[in-house]
């Protein structure tokens, strides 16, 4: 599912809201998650999962084409850990 499909689905399920308002809400939620992660904070959505940032140390890598050693700088990467509810649902263990 892409962002526009998410916006359309929410708008369809909530006919009392204008699509432009739904789009603004979805964009605000995503921006807040991105902003929190950029500040190094963890974002937890109960039942869905948690977004966090992990630091990868600098290392010596290899160019796959030439095999030549390449220095890779330290960097921060996004990390997502699924929540128990999502994991159970994906594995068919729903208990509704």
From TrEMBL:
One of its GO terms (biological process) is regulation of DNA-templated transcription. Signal peptide: none annotated. GO terms for molecular function: DNA binding; structural constituent of chromatin. It comes from the Bacteria. SMART domains: BHL. InterPro entries: Hist_DNA-bd (IPR000119), Histone-like_DNA-bd_CS (IPR020816), IHF-like_DNA-bd_dom_sf (IPR010992), IHF_beta (IPR005685). One of its GO terms (cellular component) is cytosol. SUPFAM superfamilies: IHF-like DNA-binding proteins. Keywords: DNA recombination, DNA-binding, Transcription, Transcription regulation, Translation regulation. Transmembrane segments: none annotated. Gene3D superfamilies: IHF-like DNA-binding proteins (4.10.520.10). PANTHER family: DNA-BINDING PROTEIN HU, INTEGRATION HOST FACTOR SUBUNIT BETA. This protein is one of the two subunits of integration host factor, a specific DNA-binding protein that functions in genetic recombination as well as in transcriptional and translational control. Heterodimer of an alpha and a beta chain. Belongs to the bacterial histone-like protein family. This is Integration host factor subunit beta. It comes from Actibacterium atlanticum.
